[in-house]
Fold:
Amino acid sequence: MNKDPRDFNEDQEEQSSLERYEKMIRSGKLIYFDVYQLEHIIDNFLDEGNITAAEQAVKMGLKIHPNSIVLQSKKCNILLNLGQINEALELVNSVLKIEDSNYELYLIKGSSLLLLGRMKNAEEAFNKALFYSSDNLDETLFNIGFAFEQTGNLKKAVKYLKDAYIENPENESAIYELAYCYEKLDSPKKGIEFYNKFLDLDPFSESAWFNLGIIHSRLKQYKKSIESYEFALALNDEFQSAWFNLAHTYYLWDKAEKAIDALHQYQKFDEQNDEVYSMLGDCYFKLENQNKALHYYQKALKLNKANGRLWYNLGMLLDKKNDLSGSLKHHSQAVKLEDENGEFWMGYAGICSKLDYFNEAIEAYDKSVELVPTEFSNWLDYANYVYKKGMILKAISILETANIYFPDNAVLDFMLCAFNLELGEETIAIKNLEEGLTKDSKQFNTLFECYPEAKNNKNILDKLKTFTKIK
Structure:
């Protein structure tokens, strides 16, 4: 479609005004601009994110046109952008006394009130903005939704953004922000739906492809995630975050060699990034190339000694290399740096148990299950550790606590049955067995793995026969 000649002339006029304005700033000599020209000069600076220049243009414009509602409205918006919320609200209320049907002013008022935590008053202002909007209702709905999004109220944001989308299904901004909000609200399928709608309208949006890749990766749809990142990179091969995320997705998909290639591409733009070296170490660890993994972990550590994950990874690697004292040192540093990380405490517990540092191991296991009570394997490791130390009652106590978090997991009941049988508490053990069989009778072999002598107990075998086909 050919561009309307009038549009071309307008563009030329706006560009000419901007050049004249910049020349004026350099010379320091004030020259005349009409309100229309100033409005576009200010909008140009706002679009660039240059708030300071926009503020300067507004001040100059109001010297020439002190009664201009348009310029005063722009000033309100700039004050809001600068975080001067009370000043913006005071000015917008003053201007509304002169022109009380300006929807843009009500939008600024609503946004100001929202930032001040005055939700009810903000919605009243937004409703007036909608009332006075005519040809651009979808844009007003979008701006209200975006204001709620900026203040973290994503559910309210979705309500207005959806209305904007219904009003105009081709409003790209509304579609994009809807996808983003759904992603943050942990509704990934809805997020994918709206990113795809957006990409139907704008297939050349690298950020949309990138965000789509993040959601697919979160859903473990690694092939689709990689395709999305590759589209983003086809549009911009210097998109550093896309190279990094592509590498991470390949790593999660157990394609460590491809992850390494992507990381080396990233390093063309940023050679000194500890996270990249750390991930290279992870990749070589996964490929069982321990020497290269160690090399990259150590390079990462030189760049950032405060990275707890690096100390943890090195601890795991040194453990695998049978350097237990080195592993202990690194695990100890990891929990010092991040003492609220349950995974790190579990790693520390594991190495303490190998070195037979009993008190330290118990403390670390306690900390781990306290911080991450929903990690089933941590409870099992803890219970097995104290059981091997002959502390059967302590093991039973740990499993009973775990049962609070995993009431439907039969493995815990079969282990409790085994430990109670060993203590001679057959009545309790039979009850544990019944509970386990009711939940999942297929897991009954856990009992025999923990306590093989149970195969010689007639009461146990009789109970099993009522639930299973065991002979």
Observations:
- The first helix runs from residue 5 to 27.
